[in-house]
Write a structure and sequence with these properties.
The chain is an alpha/beta fold. Helix content is 34%, strand content 13%. Strands 3-2-4-8-9-10 form a 6-stranded mixed β-sheet, with helices on both faces. A 5-stranded antiparallel β-sheet has the order 12-13-16-25-19. A 4-stranded mixed β-sheet has the order 23-22-20-24, with helices on one face. Helix 6 runs parallel beside helix 10 and helix 12 (409-425) runs parallel beside helix 14 (448-481).
């Protein structure tokens, strides 16, 4: 058709004449076009061809298969030529000024005209920043050879900021970052949605709503600031309610970045932009069992027409804030450069990268992956630059006033009453209340209700400051209280400190019930036993049982070695050591514990006929040897008998109490260190002595002098004065056996039910891999064996 236009121009026809020739050529081409349409409509490119078909659809009733179908159009064309072209030959000189370029047909690029921007109507103050002052450029071929998306096209954005995480420490700036980006996008013609601190469900709902909004858009933009992490090469965005106890839970508690990318790709937008300021350290990595957990985010492919921007390069981490700033280094650079008019998107990101490199001293390198096929501008040349948004504005998502320019006190009062009623009905954070009140004061200036809202803002800001102080003071007092008081004077000082906290921070309402409990605790506190104290229980018949005081405290429970590290030392399979992880924080109150394992002589005061038998002719039945062939049920029976006799509540130790007592303040594999060679001085385990009798045994390369159970107290004690916590006999614990939780606990007692009871410590017939402070055994409560015994504990009233 362009050839027909040029032919007309060659013969000196005016534009009207050349248009007529193109019309004739188009009509004569209908049969061929229709045949091609029928051949192509069943090809895999159906969607594209359907659009072309609609733009070249022949008139209704036309049959492309009719052999004479061209006759009538041809005759009509000749007639039209006589009527239209001839006059054009005479009057063509009047239109010569129009002879610039061939017109566009329907199936070529449309929207080539430049629509002048109407004179703006003065908008309300809150909407002023959203008005574009630049006249949109016509789209089409640019100097670089590809098209530019006009700013007048439809634009949609989703902006998400996640800061106040429930399971890990909050981030400082994502809400500031998201709010600033959202404000800028609104001034740049985007229909932008802002979502702050979303749960998983809210995050996915927002993505679904965004996917629906961008179906007819020319450009789509997604921005996220918060925690992001990678697992097995996939990237995930973390909502605030994620707990993630293990790596396997990531896919179920986080938003897969690939889902977002797929939604945007399906939209067929000409430009898709994804910006991820989410490359901070993985805060859940301690609960992951995989070693060498990768940092930051993984590399992502960009589908056609897409740009993916990362705040730093793949596998690296990004800062949350510039020193003293309200934004991350990356977002601070974005909101500085994005408002610059007439600069293509890729060039903006180049300048962003330079700024971030400078502000982080070269440690953070922003990264983009792009397959854009169109130029994209936030603002066109000649547009008035949009000033960057305030650095720490607070998001507002609920309050939208009527667009009045002049507002009366009565209207303001009614609106303010509605806002206060909403505050009473919904449990809002102080941050949310501030957002709504800030909006209100901007929309109702010069009114008494606006002044009252400003006073409420000042009051809330004072309360925020008071809450921050209360949070720090509470943390300080609780950290101090992790160590038990040693004197009555110390307890009195602590009670006074908590009373002062309750008085000073009553209005802050920060964990007041816990503060009252602590105050009462130290008010009622009486001096208890001291480390190293011991006591004796009389069992009758000249037999006694000694207990040692174990002061309360906090420790890291579980193996500090990974299963793979244990396998590297001793062999075996890693799965047998996985129940010793994850390491988690446990606090226990003080308690009395048996200095030794319960002996045959002590147990026979309860069951006089009991025999611990022998092993391969070597006696296990000596009075001072630990009692064996006792089940968990038997051990509990002894505790009940001793409780009744002594007038105290005697029981087995919990698993947490046992490990705390065995470690005695250490973090090594055993309470004397990590080496096996020293075992002969501290523990009775399978060793060279046993191997001399049973050559097939796997042993520790040490000599303890005993082939079977040794008399209690034969080896050196730990720092708490306890003997045989490692080796000699396995010791029953109170708990049902189960997996550990990663959360911090105080005086845990294990699962409420189960099949097996816990055994701890290893025995005389066990090799060193299972003779560690963190080693766990298990057995049915009714089962007994030649290497299973127990020791007892007593928790006195008021012990700390």
């Amino acid at each position: 058709m362009n050839s027909a236009w040029r032919i007309g121009k060659f013969f000196g026809l005016p534009p009207t004449g050349r248009n007529t020739i193109m019309t004739i050529v188009t009509l004569l081409s209908w049969p061929k076009i229709a045949q091609e349409r029928n051949a192509m409509i069943h090809t895999p490119q159906k969607h594209t061809l359907e659009r072309e078909r609609r733009s070249t659809q022949p008139p209704s009733g036309f049959s492309p298969r009719c052999p004479f179908a061209f006759v009538a159009p041809a005759l009509a064309c000749l007639a039209m030529f006589a009527l239209l072209v001839a006059p054009g030959l005479f009057f063509g000189s009047f239109a010569a000024a129009q002879d610039e370029a061939p017109p566009q047909t329907q199936n070529q690029t449309q929207d080539q005209t430049q629509t002048p921007t109407p004179a703006p109507i003065p908008p309300p103050a809150r909407d002023a920043a959203r008005q574009l002052t630049a006249k949109p450029k016509p789209s089409g071929a640019s100097a670089e050879g590809y098209s530019a998306i006009p700013t007048a096209g439809r634009r949609a954005a989703l902006v998400v900021g996640a800061a106040n995480y429930q399971a890990v420490a909050p981030l400082n700036n994502p809400l500031n970052d998201a709010t600033a980006i959202h404000a800028f996008l609104q001034t740049s013609g985007f229909d932008a949605a802002l979502v702050t601190d979303p749960t998983l469900r809210q995050f996915n709902d927002a993505i679904d709503a965004f996917a629906g909004k961008i179906q007819e858009a020319d450009a789509a933009l997604f921005y996220f600031s918060g925690h992001g992490l990678q697992v097995k090469g996939d990237n995930y965005l973390v909502p605030i309610d994620a707990t993630i106890p293990s790596e396997a839970d990531v896919a179920y508690q986080c938003v897969h970045a690939g889902r977002l990318m797929a939604k945007m790709d399906e939209s067929r937008c000409r430009v898709n932009i994804v910006i991820l300021d989410a490359c901070r350290n993985n805060p859940f990595v301690r609960s992951f069992r995989t070693t060498g957990q990768q940092r930051g985010l993984a590399f992502m492919e960009a589908a056609r027409g897409t740009l993916v921007a990362f705040s730093t390069s793949p596998g690296k981490t990004a800062d949350d804030a510039v020193a003293g700033g309200a934004h991350s280094p990356y977002t601070a650079a974005l909101i500085k450069h994005f408002p610059r008019p007439g600069v293509p998107l890729q060039d903006l990101f180049l300048d962003v990268r330079k700024d971030v490199l400078a502000s982080t001293r070269g440690e953070q390198v922003p990264w983009e992956v792009t397959s854009l096929t169109d130029k994209f501008y936030f603002q066109l040349s000649g547009a008035t630059p949009v000033p960057p948004p305030p650095p720490a504005s607070t998001p507002s998502t609920a309050y939208t006033p009527a667009p009045h320019l002049r507002k009366s006190n009565l209207e303001a009062r009614n609106a303010f009453d509605e806002l206060k009623a909403a505050f009473d009905k919904k449990k809002l954070s102080l941050k949310d209340k501030l957002a709504y009140l800030d909006d209100f004061t901007r929309d109702w200036p010069g009114t008494t209700a606006g002044d009252e809202a400003a006073a409420m803002i000042a009051s809330i800001r004072r309360l925020e400051k008071l809450q921050a102080e209360a949070q720090k003071e509470f943390a300080r007092l609780m950290e101090r209280d992790a160590r038990p008081p040693l004197t009555q004077a110390d307890a009195s000082r602590r009670a006074a400190d908590w009373a002062a906290y309750l008085q000073k921070y009553a209005d802050a309402d920060y964990r007041l019930s816990e503060a009252r409990a602590q105050c009462q605790r130290y008010t009622d506190w009486k001096p208890g036993p001291q480390p190293g104290d011991d006591m004796t229980l009389d069992l009758g018949g000249g037999v006694q049982l000694e207990l040692v005081w174990i002061p309360g405290g906090t420790f890291q429970m579980g193996s500090h070695q990974t299963p793979e590290e244990i396998v590297g030392l001793y062999g075996g399979e890693a799965k047998f050591y996985e129940d010793e992880r994850p390491v988690h924080t446990v606090t226990v109150d003080g308690f009395w514990m048996g200095k030794y394992e319960v002996t045959n002589a002590q147990y026979r005061r309860y069951q006089s006929s009991h025999s611990s038998k022998d092993f391969s002719g070597f006696s296990l039945n000596g009075d001072d040897q630990p009692v064996v062939y006792v089940s968990w049920d038997d051990a509990k029976g002894f505790c009940k008998w001793l409780s009744d006799r002594a007038g105290k509540t005697i029981r087995l130790p919990t698993e947490a109490e046992w490990e705390y007592a065995a470690r005695a303040g250490t973090t090594t594999a055993r309470y004397w260190g990590d080496d096996d060679a020293s075992m002969g001085r501290y523990a009775n385990v399978a060793d060279r002595t046993a191997k001399s009798q049973w050559s097939e045994w796997t042993i520790a390369e040490t000599t303890d002098g005993y082939k079977v159970a040794a008399p209690v107290g034969s080896f050196q004690p730990n720092a708490f004065g306890l003997y045989d916590m490692i080796g000699n006999v396995w010791e029953w614990c109170e708990d049902w056996y189960g997996n550990y939780s990663s959360s911090s606990q105080r005086n845990p007692t294990g699962p409420p039910s189960g099949t097996f009871r816990v055994l701890r410590g290893g025995s005389w017939g066990i090799d060193p891999r299972n003779c560690r402070s963190s080693s766990r055994g298990r057995s049915e409560p009714g089962h007994s064996l030649n290497n299973r015994g127990f020791r007892v504990v007593w928790v006195s009233a008021g012990s700390n």
